[in-house]
Amino acid sequence: MDIFEEMERHGHEQLVFCYDKATGLKMVIGIHSTALGPALGGCRMWRYAKDEDAVRDVLRLSEGMTYKNAAMGLDLGGGKTVVMAPADADREAVFEAVGRFVESLGGRYVTAEDVGTSTEDMAVVARQTHHVRGLKGASGDPSSATALGVFVSIEAALKEALGSGEIAGRTFAVQGLGHVGRYLVEQLTAEGGQVVVTDIDPAKVEAALTNPAVRAVAPDDIYDVAAAAFVPCALGAILNDQTIPRLRVKVVAGSANNQLAEPRHGAMLAERGILYAPDFIVNGGGVINVADEMEPGGYNHERAEKRVLGIRQQLEEVFRLSRQSHLLPVEAAIRIAEERIRARGQSGIYLAHPTKAS
Prior knowledge:
Blueprint: H1 3-10, E1 14-20, E2 25-33, E3 39-40, E4 43-45, H2 51-71, E5 77-84, H3 91-103, E6 109-110, H4 119-125, H5 143-162, E7 171-175, H6 179-190, E8 194-198, H7 202-208, E9 214-216, E10 229-232, E11 251-252, H8 264-271, E12 275-276, H9 279-282, H10 285-291, H11 301-309, H12 311-325, H13 329-343
Parallel strand pairs: 3-5, 3-6, 4-5, 7-8, 7-10, 8-9, 10-11, 11-12
Antiparallel strand pairs: 1-2, 2-5
């Protein structure tokens, strides 16, 4: 992998490689753009087969955060952290080290919880830096806000594809039963939907099956379920050459980041008559909720929830532009985000405390 070539290709400002000898922590912070403000994005803890896989992941995820934050109307850039640590490492010491590395960037990057991390982990990070959000006592776990945004996105996408956003009487295939997936199952079934679920953790599946409106399939069989919508809420790159031909749905709308394995897979979905709701619009509820902590006066739940509900209108705008300009929905969403960045007339690098010379 030619790292600088990849950064140039995707427009990244900065990659920061971190190593803490005491804990064995390896960490990469990706800052894609700070044109709109400091880069905000979660801290993901995962076991990657190769270090190169971690770099690719942080590049993709941080770029997605730029588009997400811009599309959500936030004055924030896009960043992300991926964390790798030995299985026997002291978790508290690991996240104290994470906090020190985040602090070293002087406010250019603000972190929060993500896959594999929690509000408890972020509380440890906060011992070492103020540049962390999603803490208990403020916005907390963003999962319910993310799920709410996904839910209204599903309604909007169903209306666009099928003429009605009605949930009742329709079937939904939900991949992944983490916090967001579980909330969504509750919301969909409460509105009269039938849900087919899967997860690599059998205990999560068993818990979901206590709901009579839920049935389960094996992880690989979720792509073959006949449903109104496929709702991916696990990891990315699940829409690819192998899975797209198997889908039996009219809509894809879920919380997973980077669902398209490659850009061409957006066209592949369209060719099959499947409406793809761009992930960085659909899953924007969490970042809206977290970013509300940065408002004057601090976090306000009612204000944050109102903004999350606005994702419905943002997605409807994407679909309108897609129709009018003959663009794929993901292309329309990227155009909206990029135009907002250009409209601000800013470029270059955000500095929390600029020097006189700058």
